[in-house]
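Please fill in the sequence for the structure shown.

STRUCTURE ENCODING:
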């Protein structure tokens, strides 16, 4: 008798370079708010919104980043985001009652992992939440270790890329 074929659940996933994007409103801005001369998305770039694979949102930061990585590497490039506005690094950390970390990791795991952990936090992230540099650095190192462990990798296998805020010399006082 011929072997039987049994139906199973199928899930879409991407093969390529994945970015797990996390942080504060500055990450959200890079991935969704800015639309100054937004380039067209390369064919081999995608964004995972937690449910669907979509064309990267019309955001110049995200599209430029994914397009450049795709062009240089020649392989598909994709990202997901779990950024939350106006919260401390502790609130974004594993085990916090808000569940932000759990929701973020659910997206990363649903897209079948990532090769890089991209972190972009606000300008007052440390001082504005009563942390000194040593405390903030320790919290970030723990967060990075948790992301690595929860993706089945070491910190070296999912390097953290820390993105700073841009400086706009032509901006008015108080803006960046």
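FILLED IN BY: designer on duty
SEQUENCE:
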């Amino acid at each position: 008798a011929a072997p039987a074929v049994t139906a199973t659940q199928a899930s879409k996933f991407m093969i390529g370079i994945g970015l797990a994007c996390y942080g504060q409103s500055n990450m959200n801005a890079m991935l969704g708010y800015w639309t100054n001369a937004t380039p067209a998305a390369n064919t081999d770039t995608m964004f995972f919104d937690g449910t669907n694979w979509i064309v990267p949102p019309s955001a110049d930061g995200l599209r430029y980043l994914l397009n450049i990585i795709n062009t240089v590497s020649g392989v598909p490039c994709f990202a997901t985001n779990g950024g939350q506005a106006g919260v401390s690094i502790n609130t974004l950390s594993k085990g916090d009652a808000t569940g932000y970390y759990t929701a973020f990791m659910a997206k990363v795991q649903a897209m079948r992992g990532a090769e890089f952990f991209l972190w972009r936090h606000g300008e007052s992230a440390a001082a504005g939440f009563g942390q000194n540099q040593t405390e903030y650095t320790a919290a970030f190192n723990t967060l990075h270790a948790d992301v690595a462990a929860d993706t089945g990798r070491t910190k070296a296998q999912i390097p953290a890329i820390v993105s700073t805020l841009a400086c706009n010399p032509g901006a008015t006082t108080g803006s960046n």
